[in-house]
């Protein structure tokens, strides 16, 4: 494949940011499932020992939130819903058959839903996590509030796990998507098929740069 046929989708800093979030998510999710379900207690060993997991889990969660916050400020304006997204949603049955619908920009409606669901879940996890974080903050809250925070934390965690599973499935289903986050590039054909408006924007930017003296 000629290098001229490649379009940069994610720079190195963006990919590093993404994989920091991904690694933190895996560690937090596995250890968290160990806390939530007694039959999964052995998952806490992913962080060394159950005792160590209870210490490290909240710090890993805060790191994940901070890393995702960088992604949020970088990508939020690409994830605003527009009329093309509504067309995409109405034709979800075609999307399921790997057909593309509408003039999609950098992200399609499904990707935007994952983005907003992830940030909402992470905000809930952070706020509820602070309330139940012993020995640092939990002492400042009463028992009913701690119980409510535990419920919110558990539901938000399960919700985020489901969202990330959908994200992973979509990345594996659409060939070429994983390459973008590993190596940073996609082919022109991939971009034109899956994100035509973004493809035109990149081509126009490239043309303008070539015209500059």
UniProtKB/TrEMBL annotation:
Membrane topology: Multi-pass membrane protein
Superkingdom: Bacteria
SUPFAM superfamilies named among the record's database cross-references: Transmembrane di-heme cytochromes (SSF81342)
GO BP: anaerobic respiration; formate oxidation; respiratory electron transport chain
UniProt keyword list: Cell membrane, Electron transport, Heme, Iron, Membrane, Metal-binding, Transmembrane, Transmembrane helix, Transport
Main location: membrane
Pfam family, one: Ni_hydr_CYTB
GO molecular function term, any single one: metal ion binding
Needed cofactors: heme
Subcellular localization: Cell membrane
Keyword rRNA-binding: no
Occurrences of domain Cytochrome b561 bacterial/Ni-hydrogenase (ranges): 9-184
GO cellular component, one term: formate dehydrogenase complex
Membrane-spanning parts: 20-43, 55-73, 113-133, 145-172
Family under the similarity heading: Belongs to the formate dehydrogenase gamma subunit family.
PANTHER family referenced in this protein's UniProt entry, alphabetically: FORMATE DEHYDROGENASE, CYTOCHROME B556(FDO) SUBUNIT (PTHR30074:SF2), FORMATE DEHYDROGENASE, NITRATE-INDUCIBLE, CYTOCHROME B556 FDN SUBUNIT (PTHR30074)
Protein name per Swiss-Prot or TrEMBL: Formate dehydrogenase cytochrome b556 subunit
